[in-house]
Design goal:
This protein has 204 residues and is mostly helical. The protein is built from ten helices and no strands.
Length: 204
């Protein structure tokens, strides 16, 4: 399938930002990699920041497309906790197996400490909204008497989710470059062990 210039700019920007950082890449460099004039970039994106905006929007839309509705999560819990958790983990791992999504994850992590836009995106979309989603899931588990009613849903959500976020940071920053396939296997195994530890501490 033929890729148009806008998609080429988008894809090349992801490659370059993930390798050299957002500030380390110029519009001229993007144009050179795409094989077009620098001025042609502005026929598709008004600025380099607009390219970044499109990348972040793409990322959150893809992640949200794999979100499991609370009603479906309730049904999955009825099948069993292992099935409930494995369904969500498979969806998340599937996103990271996508090379484009993997590279965007690295962009978000390496830029978050100094890029105000990405820092805000990380706090709102990657941290706050995700943790609030997990709080709702743990509240659901209490309602369905899967875990104890006195369990602290926020503490459970933060303990689980932030551990997973550290594993991402370790892979994309500390151990970079590391084989993505092997990392995803490790992520799944460690996440399974961690959620089991949390679950066993509050199960009824």
């Amino acid at each position: 399938m033929k890729v148009n210039n806008k998609d080429k700019i988008f894809n090349v920007s992801i490659d370059l930002f993930s390798e050299y950082g957002y500030d380390g890449v110029s519009v001229r460099q993007i144009a050179g990699e795409v094989g077009i004039k620098e001025s042609s970039i502005y026929n598709h994106f008004k600025s380099k920041e607009a390219i970044l905006d499109s990348i972040l929007n793409y990322y959150i839309e893809k992640m949200m497309s794999e979100d499991i509705p609370i009603e479906e999560a309730s049904t999955n819990l009825d099948v069993g906790f292992d099935y409930f958790y494995q369904t969500g983990l498979d969806a998340f791992a599937g996103q990271l197996k996508d090379e484009k999504m993997s590279k965007i994850t690295r962009i978000i992590l390496i830029e978050s400490y100094h890029n105000e836009k990405i820092n805000g995106f990380l706090k709102k979309s990657i941290l706050d909204e995700a943790i609030n989603g997990w709080i709702k899931l743990f509240d659901l588990m209490k309602f369905k008497k899967v875990i104890r009613e006195d369990a602290d849903s926020r503490q459970l959500a933060e303990s689980f989710y932030k551990y997973g976020l550290f594993l991402l940071y370790e892979h994309y920053i500390i151990n970079y470059p590391e084989d993505d396939g092997k990392f995803i296997e490790k992520l799944c195994k460690k996440s399974q062990n961690h959620i089991k530890l949390l679950y066993d501490s509050v199960r009824r």
